[in-house]
Specification:
138 residues, Alpha-D-Glucose-1,6-Bisphosphate, Chain A, domain 4, seven-stranded antiparallel beta sheet, 3 helices, 7 strands, globular
Length: 138
């Protein structure tokens, strides 16, 4: 498994950060590794969806659980990736620490390339966090 962790401090209250990051339909705007999103079902705070990722335009299915103003957990349930991505929001006075942790691997024969994609995912995550910060601090 590849464990990838990164974070950024944003000069915005947690509620404002939550409003932006919990709009998961808008994910491709900030996360360049996600090309498209199609929701399949929603029940309460749980959304089942299909995403198209930049790695060879592969489709993956996810179960995304929103824990309001606290975290978002996306579990890969089908496709080339298995594992999860967790986004945590930690209030710090009028600022918010936004943390992202990936615990993933490529499935099947592609598993041997998990180490190679780790750097790309880390870079993409850092760029996404910078974009989110820029959007919220303008």
């Amino acid at each position: 498994m590849a464990i990838i962790e990164t974070s950024i401090e944003i000069n915005a209250p947690t509620e404002k950060v939550w409003d932006l990051v919990s709009d998961i339909d808008n994910e491709p705007k900030f996360w360049k590794g996600t090309i498209g999103v199609r929701n399949i079902s929603k029940e309460g705070n749980v959304i089942n969806r299909e995403i198209v990722i930049a790695f060879r335009d592969q489709k993956c299915q996810q179960e995304v659980t929103l824990h309001p103003k606290e975290k978002i957990v996306a579990v890969f349930t089908k496709g080339i990736i298995s594992g999860n991505k967790t986004i945590n929001l930690i209030a710090q006075d009028s600022r918010t620490l936004l943390e992202v942790k990936w615990d993933i691997k490529l499935t099947g024969l592609m598993g041997v390339f998990t180490g190679m994609i780790k750097k790309h995912i880390k870079n993409g995550t850092e760029l996404a966090l910078q974009s989110i910060k820029k959007e919220l601090e303008r």
